[in-house]
Structure formats: structure tokens, C-alpha cells
Amino acid sequence: MIRVRKRAASSGTGLGTGRRPDRLDPRLAGKNAGTVATAPKRVLIVDDQPHVLGVLRELIASYKHEHPYEITTTQVVPDGLSMLERERFDLILLDMVMPGIGDPMLRRQGLDVLKLIVDRGVTAPVIMMSGDRDNRKVADALSQGAFAYLHKPFDLSELERSVVRALATSR
């Protein structure tokens, strides 16, 4: 025997009267219904190697944190500095060796860029990156205001931990 339930009178929407559909009908509720959306964290990545930019973009975008990431990349220092003048970022990842600024023989141009960032009053934490394993460069970067220093190739868990810690300090 088939039983038929009598439907209650409705306002014509099929969802009852005076209630928001996402609060009444679980089929219409998004997985984040009732939660406040968190603003994205804005990340600027400056590196002269396109494949490094692509890898970092994908890795950071894949992090499952309480906020999404809005990632901007550039291979050119002047473009990065220009972006920092116009926009606010929550985190900056900066390569140590960047053409177009400083003495290329020293392979420390990122320190020159870090100084320019600090001198412009940018308060976003800066994570320096380099394929060189020169402890003097690490010490110089940290003493000149870098939040952290990562070696390439990246230890993926160290990269994520550094991003999380740096963002926890940004305002």
C-alpha cells in the first residue's frame, strides 16, 4: 500500500513562509551556510623563474586554511615594488637572486629589494627564498627584516608552516 502525505499550505515557493531558503531546506544550504566568509589573504610572490612562481602559486592556493588565498606573481622587481605602492598584501615571498637590481655577481639582490620594501613602510612579513645555502645571506636577510628564509628546493611542510606563522603576525 502506498501512503501519500498531505503537503502543508505554502506561500508558493514551496519553502514555507517568511524564512530564508538556505535556513529551511537543507538541500539548498551551501556547505558554508550560516558561517561568515573569511577575507582572502593576499600574497605577492616575486621570483625571476616562471616555474617557481607557478609551483608556489599552486601550493599556496591548495592550502586548506580558514581563508582563501589571492595570489599575485611577478618576475620583475620594479613591477613588484609598484604593486606594493598601490596594493596591500598580507605576505610577500621574495627570491634572493633577482636580475635588474643590485650587483648580479653578489647574488644578493633580494636584500636590496627587502631594504626597499622596509624603507617604503610595508608591514607585510617577507619570506626570503634562495637556492644558495649561504648562511651569511640567511643571517643578513633575517637581521634586515625578513620574517623567514626558505631554501630551494622547498621542504613543503616548512613552506606551509612559514606561511601560516607569517600570516599569523600580519595585520
Structural account:
- This protein has 171 residues and is of the alpha/beta class.
- Helix content is 36%, strand content 15%.
- It has six helices and five strands, in the order αβαβαβαβαβα.
- It has helices spanning 21-24, 50-62, 77-86, 109-119, 135-143, 156-169; strands spanning 41-46, 69-74, 91-95, 126-130, 148-151.
- Strands 2-1-3-4-5 form a five-stranded parallel beta sheet, sandwiched between helices.
- The protein is globular.
- It starts with 20 loop residues before the first helix and ends with a helix.
SSE layout and pairings?
Layout: H1 21-24, E1 41-46, H2 50-62, E2 69-74, H3 77-86, E3 91-95, H4 109-119, E4 126-130, H5 135-143, E5 148-151, H6 156-169
Parallel strand pairs: 1-2, 1-3, 3-4, 4-5
How would you sum up this structure in a few lines?
With 171 residues, this protein is α/β, with parallel strands linked by helices. It is 36% helix and 15% strand. It has a five-stranded parallel sheet, sandwiched between helices.
Q: Estimate the global geometry from the Cα principal axes.
A: globular
The low-confidence runs, each spanning 5 or more residues with pLDDT under 50, are: 1-35
Supply Rg: 24 Å
**Structural class, judged by helices and strands?**
alpha/beta
Mean pLDDT: 82
The percent range for strand residues is 15-25%
Largest sheet geometry: 5 strands, parallel
What is the chain-wise order of helices and strands?
HEHEHEHEHEH
